[in-house]
Amino acid sequence: MEEFDFLVIGSGSGLDxxxxxxxxGQSVAVVEKGPLGGTCLNRGCIPSKLLLYHADVLETVExxxxxxxxxxxxxxxxxxxxxxxxxxxxxxxxSIRQGLRSSSQHSLFEGEGRFVDDHTVEVVDGEDDGAxxxxxxxxxxxxxxxxIPSIDGxxxxxxxxxxxxxxxxxxxxxxxxxxxxxxxxxxxxxxxTFGSDVTIIGRRPNLLPEADDEVAESFTERYADRFTVHTGxxxxxxxxxxxxxxxxxxxxxxGDDGGIVDDDTSxxxxxxxxxxxxxxxxxxxxxxxDATGVxxxxxxxxxxxxxxxxxxxxxxxxxxxVGEYLLKHNANHEARTVxxxxxxxxxxxxDYSAMPFAVFASPxxxxxxxxxxxxxxxxxxxxxxxxxxxxxxxxxAMKAEGFVKVLVDLDGxxxxxxxxxxxxxxLVQEVVVAMTAGTGTVQDIRESIHIHPALPEVVQRxxxxxxxxxxxxx
Length: 474
Ligand SMILES: Cc1cc2nc3c(=O)[nH]c(=O)nc-3n(C[C@H](O)[C@H](O)[C@H](O)COP(=O)(O)OP(=O)(O)OC[C@H]3O[C@@H](n4cnc5c(N)ncnc54)[C@H](O)[C@@H]3O)c2cc1C
Known about the structure:
Radius of gyration: 24 Å
Shape: globular
Bound molecules: flavin-adenine dinucleotide
Strand content: 25-35%
CATH class of the largest domain: Alpha Beta
Number of domains: 3
Oligomer: single chain
Largest sheet: 7 strands, mixed
Helix content: 25-40%
Number of helices: 14
């Protein structure tokens, strides 16, 4: 048995807390069963956004004609793009591994960590198989993995999840995607830009369930101009014969009383590659939590209090495995809170009030705070205003399409902001800052000087115009 002050299971954002422990002079054990750096680095944000930027470049060339510039794409080195991205990611993971192996403060244990009791973890199935580790403070940061829905025939067909999709060396001729969230939308955009026919099947009325309805609807309409979109459908059966995969999808009514609708609008889609991107499940089931006092909810996510303590004394949790927001910036935010709470003098509750998200597809989407349907469901009084990119000088220069939608309460407090259009992920950031560090009211944005004629003017104008109570149609 080896004794440590601090032990973390999972080397994604959990590593940030491990580094704080090490800086405080604690002995630190890191248990990791996969490549170092977690999902974001190895099979999530980083490779996906590196790949997607190539799609942005290609799209820019293809749009050049709209600016009277005759540009043609002569050749695309798709395999080179994928190889370069994956090599970069592998090198980064290996550099983290070497850093931990050579650190005097950290001890890296490679293999799957499983609890023996609240403060003991054994390592199995890896280089350090058989190690038994004990620590007073343990952090569970073991993340999530792709969910595989129970579709008839799914075990008999070849399919990829986002993990393998990021490594495909040629774009499929016809990619069929089951799932309508941001990972599905981004990967569809990536392969579609490089020439794949894309069909996407999503249960909800629109793609991007995380977005405000109006934004999601606009995104879905524009996505449908490029690809085949079957929203309001659920995949019920898959089969494969001689390299062709076939997906049957039934109409689906989303909501509490929802389910498969028995009418004649079912569809059958065939393609040469099937991507399952239908959400993520917690990795808590790999940890033998039954041996501990740690509790999970009915979906398998680890339960914590507002300080991110689990029900077992001295055991903390963060990131995807907690299931609050399955986003890297959330895991990083939770890591800062956990580090303060473990190593600081006072306990600080986690603050999720201004959690942004972004979808790096075309068009780009981003948002923060409540959506209009959230506010309606809460029965809250609110006012809304929208401003279009095309109505600003920079948006006009860019021949941009899209809008910024703002939701405020009747005293002008910012409740939400939702954007569809170029650079949405950058534009939303000033609203996050206003909600977090400013007064959190429309004045923060309206009265800050915005560079003219730069794109953030579209945000400022959305906050400056005449607000309409309770919403209106566009
Ligand atoms: C395709 C894709 C694109 C994404 N894009 C974005 C994006 O653009 N922006 C964004 O904010 N988020 C994005 N995400 C989400 C983001 O990757 C995750 O929210 C983030 O990585 C979660 O961090 P974490 O530290 O909680 O878990 P992880 O990074 O998943 O780390 C958990 C680690 O624990 C290890 N592990 C699991 N079980 C055990 C065990 N029993 N023993 C030992 N080790 C174990 C895993 O191998 C993993 O390395 C994306 C995800 C995917 C899949």
